[in-house]
């Protein structure tokens, strides 16, 4: 069936190409457990801007390149070994061209190959626009929170009683995409959560269940966090979703002053420098995204996400903001991302 279709793509012929080129090509065939997704919405991440505008992350020899990581759409065909999906299923999916796969696996096109385990069904009450906000924010958060090299928290499970772990996770940057997903998965695993955001985003923090909310713009935010959490539940770990040197240092400072797991997980990629001279006894770690075949990817994407979206315990946050419709609008959305966002995800419908 897919051979009869035409695939339109927004692609980058070489590093720093601007704007993206929109043209038509063949529709790929799913192999093994892969699925072919008719993309209905894509969301924009800071890395999409960094890849295209700064020419970072993706080496010159990997071009022509199809950028983008966040996708929602419907399944139009499945590989011969697929057992999870049927044609017509509505899904959210993480594009994997970023992770050394070929152009058929990039997000900014009408038909994309989805790879196990990074595809999950979405319930009818969740729109494609909403579901597109999840993939990279969620995957980045869960890798640091739940892997053995990260904070090694227990996995989320639908039905876990709220705050049943008796330990607190601190998320610095709770209104970011990665932070909002970290908060929700830590809550779903039964942890108490403290988070920082600017005052204007306290409503979002309440909506996703944050127990202790702090304004990171306060001059004394570190002291306020320590004073509030001292002599309460021990730390399960701290997650810095922002990766400014100042935020990593603040998190390390807090870890040094509270009891429990003094581990600050960051979203710095391997090869990026961690600050030196942080307090003794505090561990800092990088975040190497390696989801294909990862146990954590399967535990969240396969065993948890669809059910949690269905019962409403997982929300698609931060909220999508629709930039427009059609592949040609993706460039506008990437340009807007370069100006920065606050508690929202830029989305284009296809
Ligand atoms: N290593 C990896 O694999 C990987 C993967 C994905 C992302 N990342 C990185 O992770 C970071 C977050 O990505 P994202 O997509 O989640 O970003 P985002 O949604 O674009 O982040 C925007 C948010 O950051 C918050 N923020 C800015 N400065 C802050 C500070 N000093 N303290 C607390 N919050 C602050 C803002 O909060 P307010 O609006 O409330 O002020 C805003 O809501 C980026 O640096 C990204 O490059 C790394």
Layout of strands and helices, then pairs:
Elements: E1 6-11, E2 21-26, E3 35-43, H1 46-53, E4 70-78, E5 90-94, E6 111-114, E7 119-121, H2 128-131, H3 135-146, E8 168-172, H4 177-188, E9 192-197, H5 202-207, E10 212-215, H6 221-229, E11 235-240, H7 245-257, E12 263-266, E13 283-285, H8 295-302, H9 305-310, E14 320-325, H10 330-337, E15 345-349
Parallel strand pairs: 8-9, 8-11, 9-10, 11-12, 12-13, 14-15
Antiparallel strand pairs: 1-2, 3-4, 3-6, 3-15, 4-5, 5-7
Helix pairs in contact: 3-4, 6-7
The chain binds NADP nicotinamide-adenine-dinucleotide phosphate (NAP).
The site of NADP nicotinamide-adenine-dinucleotide phosphate (NAP) has 29 residues, from helix 1, helix 3, helix 4 and strand 9.
Overview of this structure, please?
With 350 residues, the protein is α/β, with parallel strands linked by helices. It folds into two domains: 2-133 and 319-349, Alpha-Beta Complex (Quinone Oxidoreductase, Chain A, domain 1), CATH 3.90.180.10; 138-285, Rossmann fold. Helices cover 25% and strands 23% of the residues. The chain has helices at residues 46-53, 128-131, 135-146, 177-188, 202-207, 221-229, 245-257, 295-302, 305-310, 330-337, and strands spanning 6-11, 21-26, 35-43, 70-78, 90-94, 111-114, 119-121, 168-172, 192-197, 212-215, 235-240, 263-266, 283-285, 320-325, 345-349. The strands form three sheets. Strands 3, 4, 5, 6, 7, 14 and 15 form a seven-stranded mixed beta sheet that branches. Helix 3 (135-146) packs across helix 4 and helix 6 (221-229) packs parallel to helix 7 (245-257). The longest helix has 13 residues, at 245-257. The radius of gyration is 20 Å and the shape is globular. The model has no long low-confidence stretch (mean pLDDT 96). It binds NADP nicotinamide-adenine-dinucleotide phosphate (NAP). Residues 45-47, 136-137, 140, 172-173, 175-178, 196-198, 201, 216, 241-244, 247, 267, 269, 287, 289, 341-343 line the site of NADP nicotinamide-adenine-dinucleotide phosphate.
């Amino acid at each position: 069936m897919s051979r009869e279709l035409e695939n339109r793509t927004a692609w980058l012929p070489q590093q720093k190409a601007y704007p993206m080129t929109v043209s038509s090509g063949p529709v790929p065939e799913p192999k093994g457990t892969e699925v072919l997704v008719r993309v209905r919405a894509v969301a924009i991440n800071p890395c999409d801007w960094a890849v295209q505008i700064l020419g970072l992350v993706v080496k010159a020899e990997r071009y022509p390149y199809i950028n983008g990581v966040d996708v929602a759409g419907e399944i139009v065909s499945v590989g011969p070994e697929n057992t999870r999906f049927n044609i017509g299923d509505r899904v959210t999916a993480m594009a994997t061209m970023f992770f050394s796969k070929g152009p058929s696996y990039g997000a900014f096109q009408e038909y994309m190959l989805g790879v196990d385990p990074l595809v999950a069904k979405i319930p009818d009450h969740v729109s494609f626009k909403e579901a597109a906000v999840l993939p990279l924010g969620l995957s980045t958060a869960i890798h640091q929170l739940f892997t053995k090299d990260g904070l090694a928290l227990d996995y989320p499970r639908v039905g876990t009683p709220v705050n049943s772990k008796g330990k607190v996770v601190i998320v610095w940057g709770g209104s970011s995409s990665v932070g909002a997903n970290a908060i929700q998965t830590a809550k779903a695993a039964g942890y108490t959560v403290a988070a920082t955001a600017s005052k204007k985003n306290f409503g979002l923090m309440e909506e996703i269940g944050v127990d202790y909310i702090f304004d990171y713009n306060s001059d004394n935010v570190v002291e306020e966090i320590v004073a509030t959490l001292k002599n309460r539940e021990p730390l399960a770990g701290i997650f810095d979703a922002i990766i400014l040197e100042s935020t990593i240092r603040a998190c390390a400072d807090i870890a040094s002053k509270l009891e429990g797991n003094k581990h600050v997980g960051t979203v710095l990629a391997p090869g990026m420098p961690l600050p030196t001279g942080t307090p003794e006894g505090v561990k800092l770690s990088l975040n190497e995204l390696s989801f294909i075949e990862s146990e954590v990817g399967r535990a969240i994407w396969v065993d948890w996400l669809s059910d949690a979206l269905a019962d409403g315990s997982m929300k698609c946050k931060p909220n999508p903001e629709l930039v427009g419709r059609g592949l040609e609008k993706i460039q506008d959305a990437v340009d807007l991302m370069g100006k920065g966002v606050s508690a929202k995800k830029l989305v284009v419908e296809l």
